[in-house]
Amino acid sequence: MNQERIFQVLESPHVSEKAAVVADINNQYVFKVAVNATKAEIKKAVEQLFKVNVDNVRTLRVKGKVKRNKHGFSTKSTWKKAYVRLEQGQDIDFASVD
Q1: Domain count, the chain
Q2: How high is the pLDDT of residue 93?
Q3: Helix (H) or strand (E) holding 45
Q4: Does pTM surpass 0.85?
Q5: Which domain holds residue 71?
Q6: Between vectors from CA 78 to CA 73 and to CA 84, what angle results, nearest 5°?
Q7: Is residue 95 part of a domain?
Q8: Residue of 53, 55, 4, 9 lying closest to 31 (CA atoms)
Q9: Which long-range contacts (CB under 8 A, 24 or more apart) does 78-81 make?
């Protein structure tokens, strides 16, 4: 997988309270990923970018919320997130990415 596709697949780490709890307990990290990314692509991208071994990947689509404004209704974008579980003893340090 080339470097350009890695950064297309992995958009950003998803920071939330639930993501912090999952990271502490289950050695999982949560990423916002491209809507058309597959689990295999996500696994390869994380392994190449962070130089870790991925145990498994779970994905889900977060449906965009409907918001009301003065012009009527609008819809936020639907996006996809991935829960990436690392093998035992592995860790991701976001500050030291090459």
Answers
A1: 1
A2: 83
A3: helix 39-50
A4: yes
A5: 3-90
A6: 155
A7: no
A8: 9
A9: 78/35, 79/32, 79/35, 80/32, 80/33, 80/34, 80/35, 80/37, 81/14, 81/30, 81/31, 81/32, 81/33
